[in-house]
Each structure stands twice: as C-alpha cells, then as structure tokens.
Specification:
Main location: membrane
Number of helices: 22
Strand content: under 5%
Keywords: Membrane, Transmembrane, Transmembrane helix, Transport
CATH architecture: Up-down Bundle
Number of domains: 1
Strand order of the largest sheet: 2-1-3
GO molecular function: transmembrane transporter activity
CATH topology: Amino acid/polyamine transporter I
Protein name: Choline transport protein
Largest sheet: 3 strands, antiparallel
Order of helices and strands: EEHHHHHHHHHHHHHHHHHHHHHHE
InterPro entries: AA/rel_permease1 (IPR002293)
Length: about 500
C-alpha cells in the first residue's frame, strides 16, 4: 500500500505496519508524510487531559446556559437532557478515541475521513469535514471570548447597579482578551505547557468551592419536585420539539471535545494518551456538570429574578441568591472568569493546530505561509494569526448585530457534531473493518458497542442539525466561502492523507 502526505508524495508502507501503527508513538503521522517532526512532542498525558477538559469545562458551560435551558423544557431538559447528551457524546468520544489510537494526527476527524473514504470521494469529503471542523472551532473561540466579556461586565454591574453596559463595552473586552491570549499562545504556551495543568486544578477547586458554598448557604432550598420534575415550555413549540431544541444547552457542555486530537502530534505516546483524554473529558465533564446543575437548582430561590437579572449572566443572580453576599458572588464570578482565560487560551492553541494541519494539506490559498512552524517559538504563528483575524471579524459582527453574532456562535455545536459524523459514517460504510481498526490498537471497542456508538454519532448529527434552531443566513455565507475556496484553490491543490490497501 502507499501513503500520500500533504505534498502529494507517495511513501511505501508495509501491510504489516498498518496493524502495528498504534503501537508506535508517531510512526503513523510520519509514515503518512504529515510532518509531525516539525513540533516538539512535549505534552504529556495529564497535560493533554487538562487541556481537553479546560476547553470543555462542562460545569462552567452548564453555568452559562442553565437559566436559558430552564425556559426550554424546565429542569427536565436541564437534568435529563444532560444525561441524554452525555450518552451521545460518550459514543462520539469512543468513536474518536478508536480512530485516534490508530491515526494520531493533528487533522483529527478530517484526516480520519480522508483515510476511510473511497479514493474518488476522499478529497472532497475530507475537505468538507476539515472546513466544517475549523469553522466550529472559530465559533467556539468567539463564544468563549464573549462569555468572558460577560463575566467582567457582570462583576461591574454587581457593584454598580446603575451601570448600563453597551455593546461596544463587550466588543472592546472581547477583542482585548482575544489579543492577549494570542500573545500567550505565540510566546508563552510552548515554554509553559504546565499552564493547562494549573487551569485543570483551578477548575476543579472552583467547582468544589462554589458548589459547597452555594448548597450550604442557600436558605430556603427548592423542593425535590421543582428540581426533578419541573417542565417549562416558553418556546412556542410543542413539548416534544421543545425538549429536543432545548438539548442544545446541555450539549454545549462538550463543545471542543476533539481538542486532544488536534494536539496529537505534540503528545508523548499519543496513541494511548489522546483516547484517554477524549474519554476522560466526557466522564469528568458529566460528573461535574450534573452535580453543579443539581446544586444550583436546589439553591436558587427566585427564578423570575434570575431571568430578569441586570448582570446579563443569570448564574450570577443564582450565586447572589444562594450566598446572599456580593463579595462571595464576585469571587465566584472572578473564578469563572479565570477559568475562561485558560479555556480561551487552550481553544486558540487547539484551533490553530487544526488550521495548520489544513494548510499543511494545502487547503488554503496561502497554505505555504500558514503551514510554517516558527523555528524558535515552535508554534504555527501564521495559523494563530489567521485564526485571530477571523475571530476579530466575528467581534465586528457582534458590534453590527448581536443577533447575527449569536447565530454565528450557535452553529458551532451543530458543525462540531457534523464533523464527527463524517468518519463515523465511513466506519459504518467500511463495516468497521480491521483493515482500518486493527485489533492490536490500544483502544478498540467491542463489535456491538462500536457499531452502536458509530450509528449514534451519525443519528445525533442529523438530529442536532434539525432541532438545534439552525440559523440560515450565516451558515449559507460560510458555506459559499468554502465552496469558492474549493474552486479557486483547494480543488486543485488540497491533498488529504491516504492509505491505499493492496494485497497483503
């Protein structure tokens, strides 16, 4: 068989090597010509787990959408929806873990698609998957940046009730945070990979402090009936559709689930560490997010006040009601803001690696520039800058129309799951053949569980697209840009990795 890399160079790989790919650190990536030797392999197993969890930060994601989620199905959607979406994302994580155990490359799902697809469809499908994945990460970057701005404004409102925030206040904070963390990614991250470890410890410490304080201080507590059985439908949709559309809020807990995949080529023993990181992110995420949601629901005393809060962050009002202390609420908001810094820092790092991988495969008009790794900083500086420009433009959209901006960031979850559906569907197409998933891989699902997981990923992608209030205008424009890029450049020059299997 032959392997084709980003420059179209064919390399000879023995059939026996395919079955043992997962047993060697980065032999897969190097054998496919992916240039993994351009970056140092300095991220250990705990750091990649920390980075992945810092991005998902499921309990903070739950905090950000808790009040909105209650209006879209009540506590029933918040709690039972969290269980349902966790099942979906466990299946998704297992699918990604299986593939990353065999093909640990920065391209992640779009490289999996390129390798699994029939030769005549490989180029188009992998390009589409890559562009969708890249846009989902831009959407996530914008969402977290604006959330951090909202935390800062919320603290100001707590102590200055007469302060009326304007759109340009959020805009300036959004742009400042994005720029500062861009500098962090260029000059600091590679010199201090332990930053992600600090973020992980801060996240868990803050979780326990906030949860214990709110539960112990709140009085009176909400009833069991309110917490576990309240149904609220303020959407205008029938109840069934309300529940399905409301799942977007618990699904936000797992935004950025594929983070570890895109840093595989910088990890030590990625065939083992990346699958563990992906699976652990879901497990730790569910335990923390579900516990946090239950605690906050028992702690709030006036739900109408939560929805009408002047801070712009309903969870801040819940903190205030539970603790009855501005100081404690401010401390909790600052903790959440610091977590947001670590989250946005990790997002910029991860999304730049995906952009770098696409450029390495010649997906863009300026790929020869974007694919460069700085010789002394050891980071893809131009990929970081390219992503920053797009994120900056998203901030400008916020200034022009918050509705358009919300639509932009809202499609991130839909596009993320769609990008996972590509390789999952192709695994099903190939009948989960051991040719692609060798039995010697460090992570391999039992046959029945594997089929179930792959099917669930595909079905959930369809449901997410239909029911998550998919906006029309912005995705159409983004899609048009991708199609234009395909005809101008990628259709002729883009080359995803391939393994052509011949006779053994």
């Amino acid at each position: 068989m032959s392997a084709t890399g980003d420059k179209g160079d064919a390399q000879s790989v023995n059939q026996s090597e395919v079955g043992s790919m997962a047993a060697v650190d980065l032999d897969v990536a190097e054998g496919l010509g992916l240039g993994s030797d351009q970056v140092p392999h300095d991220i250990n197993g705990f750091s990649i787990l920390s980075l992945g969890f810092n991005i998902c930060n499921s309990w903070v994601g739950m905090a950000s959408s808790l009040a909105i989620g209650i209006t879209q199905g009540g506590t029933v959607t918040v709690l039972y929806g969290a269980i349902l979406t966790t099942i979906v994302y466990l299946a998704t994580a297992a699918t990604l873990a299986e593939l990353s155990a065999v093909y640990p490359t920065a391209g992640g799902q779009y490289h999996f698609t390129s390798l699994l697809a029939p030769a005549r469809f490989s180029k188009g499908l992998s390009y589409a998957c890559g562009v969708i994945a890249a846009f989902s990460w831009v959407s996530l970057s914008a969402a977290v940046a604006i959330l951090n701005a909202q935390w800062i404004i919320a603290v100001a409102v707590i102590w200055n009730p007469g302060y009326l925030p304007h759109t340009w206040h959020y805009f300036l904070i959004y742009q400042m945070l994005s720029f500062v963390l861009l500098l962090s990614n260029i000059f600091v991250v590679k010199r201090a990979p332990w930053m992600h470890d600090i973020g992980f410890y801060l996240t868990l410490t803050s979780f326990f402090v906030i949860l214990v304080t709110c539960v112990s201080r709140s009085d009176p507590k909400q009833s069991n009936e309110f917490v576990w059985t309240t149904w609220i439908n303020a959407t205008g949709w029938p109840d069934g559709i309300c529940f399905l559309t409301g799942l977007v809020n618990p699904a936000f807990m797992y935004a950025g689930l594929d983070a570890a995949l895109h840093l595989a080529e910088e990890c030590t023993r990625p065939e083992r560490t990346v699958p563990k990181a992906v699976m652990s992110s879901v497990v730790i995420g569910f335990v923390t997010a579900f516990s946090f949601a239950v605690a906050m629901l028992y702690s709030l005393s006036d739900f109408d006040a939560v929805l009408a809060t002047a801070t712009g962050m309903p969870i801040v009002e819940i903190f205030l009601q539970a603790t009855r202390s501005k100081a404690a609420t401010t401390a909790f908001a600052i903790m959440s803001l610091c977590i947001g810094f670590f989250c946005l820092n990790a997002i910029q790092q991860t999304s730049s690696r995906l952009t770098w991988a696409l450029a390495r495969d010649n997906a863009f008009s300026f790929s020869h520039v974007i694919s460069r790794i700085h010789p002394t900083l050891h980071v893809p500086v131009w990929a970081l800058l390219a992503n920053y420009v797009v994120i900056f433009c998203c901030g400008c959209i916020y200034m022009a129309s918050t509705t358009a901006f919300n639509a932009l960031v809202g499609i991130g979850i839909i596009l993320q799951q769609a990008s996972f559906a590509f390789p999952a569907a192709l695994l099903l197409y190939n009948h989960r053949s051991t040719k692609f998933l060798p039995t010697t891989a460090p992570f391999r699902l039992p046959t029945l569980i594997g089929w179930t997981a792959n099917i669930l990923v595909v079905i959930s992608s369809i449901f997410w697209t239909i029911f998550f209030h998919f906006p029309v205008t912005l995705p159409v424009k983004s899609s048009n840009m991708s199609v234009i890029n395909w005809f101008i450049h990628a259709g002729k020059h883009y080359r995803g990795p391939r393994i052509e299997f011949g006779a053994a």
